[in-house]
Amino acid sequence: FGLSLPAVAVLLVALLCLDPHGRVGSAPICAHGPSGCHIPSLADLFDRVIQHSARMHSLSNDLHSEFEQYFLPSKNHIGKIYRKCHTSNILTPNGKDNAQKLAREELTEVILKLLMAWRDPLFQLHQSMAHQQDFNSFSSNKALEMGDMAHELRKGVEKVAEKMRVLGMLGNSVTGLSAAEAMLPLSDSGEAMSDYELLYCFRRDSNKVQNYLKILKCRIVPEHDC
Amino acid sequence: MRNSGAVLILTFIAILTLQAAGVSPPGKPRLTSCRSPEKETFTCWWEPGGDGGLPTTYALYYHLENSETVYECPDYRTAGENSCFFNKNDTSLWVNYNITVVASNALGKNISDPVEVDVVYIVQPNTPEHVTAVVVHDEQGPFVRVSWEKPRTADTRSGWITLLYQLRVKQEKDKEWEEYNAGMQKYYNVFSLHPDKEYMVQVRCKPDHGFWSEWTQTTYVKMPDYITRERSLWIMITIFFVFIVVILTWTLNVKRNSVKLCLLPAVPGPKIKGFDKQLLKSGKSEEVFNTLVIQGFPPTTDYDNLLVEYLEVYDNEEQELVQDGKDLSEDCMKSKSPSDIDSGRGSCDSHTLLLEKCMDGREGSGSNQHQYSQHGETRWASTESSESQDPEPGSPESANGRGKTWPVVFPSPQPQPHHHYPVGAAKPAYHSVPEILNHLSPHAMSSNYHQLNHQDILQQERRFSKPACRHSQSYNQFNLDGIDTPAPGVAPSPSLEYVEVQRVNPENMLLLRPLSDPNREPEGSDCTREDYSKVKEVTSNNILLLQRDMSHQCVDDYSQADQCTTQQPPHPCKPAVHQSNSGMPQEAIRVMGNGYVDSTVLMPSY
C-alpha cells in the first residue's frame, strides 16, 4: 500500500515526539559546579540590591523635587499638611542605634514590608500621573520605572533572604515575609493621597530601604565598602 | 468693653513711649540652617532679628510631625551662639521637625517662621582628615598619590552613612582647580603633573544624599624635575628625522642631475633642419615654415640619382613559363621574381642583360630550354605579339611603365655564351628582333622562346654581307639545339660582355657583335663606330634620336634617317623603320657625359 509523502512526514514527527530519547530537555547551565558558571555570592547579591535601591531612591528624589519645583513654588509654605503616610503603621527604626539593635530577620522583614506596601500605590501613582496633563511623559515614565524598580527590588531582597536562610544566617522566625499584605494607601481620614504626598512618602521610604539594606549588608558581609 | 479699649490705648501709648526711648521688642529671628554631620545628630542655627535695645532671649521650640508635643531645644551651648544642638536621643530620622525660634525680651517676644527639617536630608559631613600627597616614582614617570581618611564622626563602617570623596589640585599660580572624583575610596593617583612644580591639594566628601563638606586645608606637594619618557622619545624621533632629511637633501643635491632627468625626462625638441625654434616662439610662422620649403622640390633637375642605365621591363605572367631552373646554372636562375627591383641581386638576377656568371664557353645544351633573362623575353614576346604589326617604333610601352628594356639577346642555356647587346637603338630594332627570330627559327618552341640562331644570323649576314664593313661578328648563339661550333671568328665570350647591335639588316634583323670581339675590325672609318650611340634627342613621339659622330660610319641602320642623311655614310643607311625629317624637338635634353640621355625627362612628372 502506498503512503503519500505528508503521511510519512507525520508519522516521522509522531515517532520523534513519542520517542523519549528524541525529546529535547533543558539542562542547567551550572550543572558542573561553581567552575562552570559564576554563582553570585551573598556579597554580590547585596551589592546588587543596594545599587538597585539607590537608583530607586534617586528616581523618587528627582520626581519629588520636580513636583515641588513646578507645582509648589514656596518650599516652606505654611499649611503644607502632610497626612500620615500609609506606611507609618509599619514600625521602622528611626535611628542608627535602633536599626542596629534590630535583628537581621526583623530588619529584612521591615524592608520587605515596606517594599510590599508600595507595590500598589506606585502603580496608582503612575496611573494618575499619566492621566494628568500637568506631568510630562518623562515624569510619568519615571513613575512607571520607579514602580518596576520597587517590584524588582522586592524580588531581589527576597532572594537575598532566601540565600541568607540557606546559609543559616537567618533563623526561621521570619514569618512576615509571606504574610505581608498589600496596604491601601489610605490616610486616616480615608481619603486618597495626592500625588505629591505619595511622592513625599515614597521618597522617604525608599531612603529607609536603602539605609536598612546597607546596614544589613555591613552587618552580614562586611568585606568592603563598610 | 470700656476697659479693654482703655487697655489698648494705654498699651499703644506705652509702646510709643518705649520706642521713643529706643527700646522695643525683639526682632524676628530667623533660622538659618540646620545640619547633621553624621546623620545621628544635628544642629540648627538662627540669627537674631534685633534685640530692641533690651536683653533678648531666644528659645527654640520644635515639634515632630503629626504630634503636637512641643519640645524645647535641649542644648543651646554645644554648637555655639544662637544654635541648638540635638543629640542622638533627640534626633529621629525620617521624621519632620517643625522648628521655631522665639526671641523674647522685656517688652515682648517674636517668633520666627517655622522650618520643616528632615534630618536625613540635611547631612553635611565634616571634612576628611589627614590628607597626604606623596610623589611616587614609577618607570613611566613620577606621579602624586593623595590619600586621606574619613571624617571622624562619620560611621561608614556600619554602613549607616556612605561618603563620596572629591579632591582638587592646582598650582599656586593657576586660577582654576582641577577636580577629581575619588568615589568611595580614600586615595587617588594624580598623573600628568608638570615636573619641578609645586601643587596644592584639597579634599572633600559628601554623603550619597546630602551636602558637600568643606574643603580640607591645603596640602602642598612638589613634583621632581624629570624628563618624561614621552618627551625624550619625541626628541629622539625629531633628531632622527632631521638627520634623514639632511641626508636626503644632500643626496638629492649630489644627484640632482639624474633626479632631474628622472623626474623631467627630456622632451625632444623639433629637430627639423632649418627649423628655428626661436622664430617659432616669436610667432612668425611664415618665416619658420618658409625655411622648411626646399626649393626645387619635387626635384626636377637633378636626375643624377635617377638615371638608370638599363631600364627593365617585366612581364610577370609569362615569366614562369619561360624559366626552367632545373638544369640551368644556379647563378643564372637566381631570382625569378617579377619585380623590377634589381637591388640586392647578383648580376645574374638583375634585370639587365648583364649575365656575368651565366656565361660559359659552352654553347648549346641538350635541352631545348632557354634560359632567359628574367625580364625581357616574355615582355618582348608580349610586346611583339601586341605590336608585331606595328612597323613603327611605336610607343614602347613598358609594361611596367618604367622604361624600356632593351633586351637584345636572351641567354641560352649555360654552355652557350650570352651576349648582351646593349641596345641603344630605336624601337624598330626592338620590335624587329622577334620577327627576325621567328623568321629565322621556325622551330622555336614557342613564342616565348626566341632564339637568335647563330647560323641563321650568319646566313643572314652572309646574305646581307656588307662589303665595306668587314666585321667579324660574333653572334650569339641561342640555338636551342645547340650549335657546337661557334660562329666563325667568334670566340665564345667567356665573361661578361656587352654585345652591340652592329646593324639591322633590311629584314630587320639585328646583327650583333660582342664588344670584346677580338676580330673586331679596327676602326675602319667605315665600320668603326662608337660602342654606344648617343641619343641626341627625343622626339615628341617618344623616339630617340641618336647622334652619331661625324667620322664614324653609320651603323645606324636603326637610326633615324636624318642622322644618316647628315652623316653621309658610305654605305647606305637603311633606316630601319622610320624616316623622319621632322624637326627635332626643341626640347632640351640633358645629355649625359657618356652620351646617354637622361631618361628622366621621359618620365612623367609624378
UniProtKB/TrEMBL annotation, chain A:
Taxonomic superkingdom: Eukaryota
Entry-linked InterPro entries: 4_helix_cytokine-like_core, Somatotropin/Prolactin, Somatotropin_CS
SUPFAM superfamilies associated with the record: 4-helical cytokines
Naturally occurring in which organism (per UniProt): Cyprinus carpio carpio
Cited CDD domains: prolactin_2
Family note: Belongs to the somatotropin/prolactin family.
Annotated compartments: Secreted
UniProt main location, coarse: secreted
Signal peptide: 1-26
UniProt entry keywords in alphabetical sequence: Disulfide bond, Hormone, Secreted, Signal
Cellular component aspect of the GO annotation: extracellular space
Keyword Ubl conjugation among record annotations: no
An annotated GO BP: positive regulation of receptor signaling pathway via JAK-STAT
Pfam families in UniProt: Hormone_1 (PF00103)
Protein name in UniProt: Prolactin 2
Record flagged with keyword Ribosomal protein: no
Any one GO MF annotation of this record: hormone activity
UniProtKB/TrEMBL annotation, chain B:
Keywords annotated in UniProt: Disulfide bond, Glycoprotein, Membrane, Metal-binding, Receptor, Repeat, Signal, Transmembrane, Transmembrane helix, Zinc
Region (Disordered): 324-347, 360-425
Example of a GO cellular component annotation carried by this entry: receptor complex
UniProt feature, compositional bias: Basic and acidic residues: 324-343
A molecular-function term among this protein's GO annotations: cytokine receptor activity
UniProt topology in membrane: Single-pass type I membrane protein
Major location (coarse): membrane
Domain remark in the UniProt entry: The box 1 motif is required for JAK interaction and/or activation.
Main function: This is a receptor for the anterior pituitary hormone prolactin.
Family: Belongs to the type I cytokine receptor family. Type 1 subfamily.
Protein name per the record: Prolactin receptor
Native source species: Cyprinus carpio carpio
Lineage, broadest ranks: Eukaryota, Metazoa, Chordata, Craniata, Vertebrata
